[in-house]
Amino acid sequence: MLSVLVFAPVADAAPRAPVIWAFGDSLSAGYGLPPASGFTARLEAALRRAGLAATVRNGGVAGDTAAQARARLRWGLRGLGTTPDLVIVELGANDMLRGLPVSQTQANLEAILTELRNRRIPVLLAGMRAAPNLGPDYVRAFDGIYPALAKKYGVARYPFFLDGVAGNRALLQADGMHPNARGVDIIVGRILPEVRKALRGSAAHAG
Known about the structure:
five-stranded parallel sheet, 8 helices, 5 strands
């Protein structure tokens, strides 16, 4: 006796919501703020208001230099439990504040970008700017790291993470360096278009 097997069509699985990893220092970690007011939480909320159900994971560690972040990159990626669709690399402020050699900062950022490129993970490189009191030569060299690396590695770049906030006491915490909740919202509003653009590029590349 022959039996007839009827196979129901299998519906396509729903696409996975994109995962963004903000890999940086205290600026992306939300230093001095309640978790709901930090950069990653506010960026995730802004993306969802824009109709994109992305998850933004916090990979910021206060005080990290580019070298320290480089040292934890691989285990940080393992800890995510999934390959992120985009990594926002936000590093360099602590190198600059300590007056570390620009060549050292650049070499560590290069190692981070190389690792992410080898893993085929898209990057949005968030730039930092040197304080004027470090002198014109240092400022010129430090500020030049980010456009040079973005060009060399073919990654998206957001010119200055603290754009619209740096130097404005009303948008900073008492230390004059870290954004307050209002400052974070301004940062998020300004970087949001670049994050969405980078995610579109990531999706197109994956497809």
